[in-house]
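Record Quinoprotein dehydrogenase-associated SoxYZ-like carrier, 279 aa.
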Amino acid sequence: MHRRIRLILAVALFSALAASAAAAQEPGADATWNSLKPDVFGERAIKEASPLVRLTAPIRAEDAAMVPIEVEVMMPAGDPRTVKKLTLIVDENPAPVAATFRFGGERHDVTLGTRLRVNSYSYVRAIAETSDGELHMAARYVKASGGCSAPALKDEEAALKNIGQMKLRLVTPGKADGPAKSGDATQASRVSQLQLMIRHPNYSGLQMDQVTRLYIPAKFVDSIEVKQGDELVFAMEGGISLSEDPAIQFSYEPTGKEVHVDAGDTDGRKFEGALKPAG
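=>
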């Protein structure tokens, strides 16, 4: 009888622990965010599940080192506010703030896509700041692990050989890998999008050299500035959670002026050029 009671209690305890572990991997397990939020935004109020922000990300990532996300921030018709800033956060990453984008001009709508590293099951969050100072958030729970420590796709010599090479192209809205439209930025519509790609290993500092078995020092793109003439499209501050060979797809309002890109990494390298979308 006593043995049976002990067995029942053991099974109940095991079930409770299993349920607790499962719950920690489901949406609602946001204890990390509750402790992280004050460090990033202080005591500012954040409107969660805001209708102004839409975040698209896979529920289960195929590659934790390259998780595609897309963010849309749209002001309602007639709303005078503009989009000033966007912060991307991966709660459970060693450096949770993946990137911060500051937008120029009077942007009433913004779309932006990129690829992130996700180190363990985690919420991915997009927090937009509007011109009145309000913060609006959308969140998505992504099942992925090992993204920050995944081996680089290229060896260091090959990665550094082409470091800083850029490509800018006009893409079909909503289709990051779709064919480019004909023409350049001056022929694009208001909802046109550009995709910027920069060759860079974006080492996280958590990856191991497969030959020496030593950790590769962190080395990543930490700043990007895109302008049309003297007008700012966006300025980005990035961290280790951006994927290798960063790719950023973004909406813009073409003015007929040439698009300039200036970027830099944590080693002090500068990458720059005056680029036009490929036809």
